[in-house]
């Protein structure tokens, strides 16, 4: 019998939380991104466990993972791969770059130059890399988990909107509560290292879970609710650019995974509403006036979610 998304999520949570203390909601959102096969941006101040979370997630999955440390001298070819001339044969062979893995940890992504960051655009959207006009497919499932520090400006480059839009979700890790931080302090010398974790899901199991999530029922009314939310961000007076149609697709995909983790066979309006901040906030560009008034994308989404009534889909029996 195939492993259910709910059971797979429980196994992942138990494994990852051996390293990441006191962050069950962050681990849940990371699992949502994984099961939706969407990319995840972890953003917070240094020392909150962003890289440890990404490494723990990668180590919990059977398959290949790679870590790309973004620095100003990193080149696009280091990410995508390069053609190497073979003197003996007089031909060029392709040497794959760091993205040829199931889970790619893009550590401190905003330290890479814009040219280097742009090397991820194609592979994040299409799961292929084009080198010298030849396309190369990356392994599936494929997930980019990126980290960035939003408060440090020296030696960093702002992620462009086109790249932010390719992340399914942006999640802030946050500080642990008192008890969790005590456990972190006491376990600093003897705690579990992410590299010591053993996989709890192999690639066929993960692929089967992703397939189950994609088949989860979404009522047209619920899909319409997601589209209404994304569309309303474009019309809000504090917004210069709102969520694109890719944002609507991402919102439904994430809601599917969230419902599957709860062991339900359908997506509810609450699933959409609960996941909306993680999926849409980073896709919203505020007007200069709104930024001067210190408005935030989260406040805009609160306005939107408060103004749009939730639909009431028909029960399964009535649909039949």
TrEMBL record:
SUPFAM superfamilies: P-loop containing nucleoside triphosphate hydrolases. CDD domains: AAA. Residues 39-169 form the ATPase AAA-3 domain. Pfam families: AAA_3 (PF07726), AAA_lid_2 (PF17863). Residues 232-303 form the ChlI/MoxR AAA lid domain. InterPro entries: ATPase_AAA-3 (IPR011703), CbbQ/NirQ/NorQ/GpvN (IPR050764), ChlI/MoxR_AAA_lid (IPR041628), P-loop_NTPase (IPR027417). It comes from the Bacteria. This is MoxR family ATPase. It comes from Pseudonocardia charpentierae.
């Amino acid at each position: 019998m195939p492993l259910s998304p709910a059971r797979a999520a429980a196994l992942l949570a138990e494994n990852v939380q051996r390293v990441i203390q006191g962050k069950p909601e962050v681990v849940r959102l990371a699992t949502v991104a994984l099961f939706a096969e969407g990319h995840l941006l972890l953003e917070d101040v240094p020392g909150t466990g962003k890289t440890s979370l990404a490494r723990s997630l990668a180590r919990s999955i059977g398959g290949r993972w790679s870590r790309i440390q973004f620095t100003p001298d990193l080149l696009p070819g280091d990410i995508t791969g390069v053609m190497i001339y073979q003197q003996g044969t007089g031909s060029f062979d392709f040497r794959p770059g760091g993205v040829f893995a199931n889970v790619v940890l893009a550590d401190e992504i905003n330290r890479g130059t814009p040219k280097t960051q742009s090397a991820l655009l194609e592979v994040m959207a299409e799961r292929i890399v084009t080198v010298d006009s030849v396309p190369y497919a990356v392994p599936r499932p494929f997930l980019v988990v990126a980290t960035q520090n939003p408060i440090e400006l020296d030696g960093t480059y702002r992620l462009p909107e086109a790249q932010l839009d390719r992340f399914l979700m942006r999640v802030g890790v946050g500080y642990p509560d008192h008890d969790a931080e005590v456990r972190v302090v006491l376990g600093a010398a003897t705690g579990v290292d992410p590299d010591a974790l053993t996989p709890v899901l192999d690639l066929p199991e993960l692929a089967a879970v992703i397939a189950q999530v994609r088949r989860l029922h979404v009522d047209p009314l619920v899909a319409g609710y997601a589209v209404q939310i994304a569309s309303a961000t474009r019309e809000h007076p504090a917004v210069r650019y709102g969520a694109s149609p890719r944002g609507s697709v991402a919102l439904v995909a994430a809601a599917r995974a969230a419902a599957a983790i709860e062991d339900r066979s359908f997506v509810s309006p609450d699933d959409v509403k609960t996941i909306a901040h993680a999926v849409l906030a980073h896709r919203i560009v505020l007007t200069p006036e709104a930024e001067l008034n210190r408005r935030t994308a989260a406040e805009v989404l609160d306005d939107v979610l408060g103004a749009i009534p939730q639909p009431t889909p028909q029960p399964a029996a009535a649909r039949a």
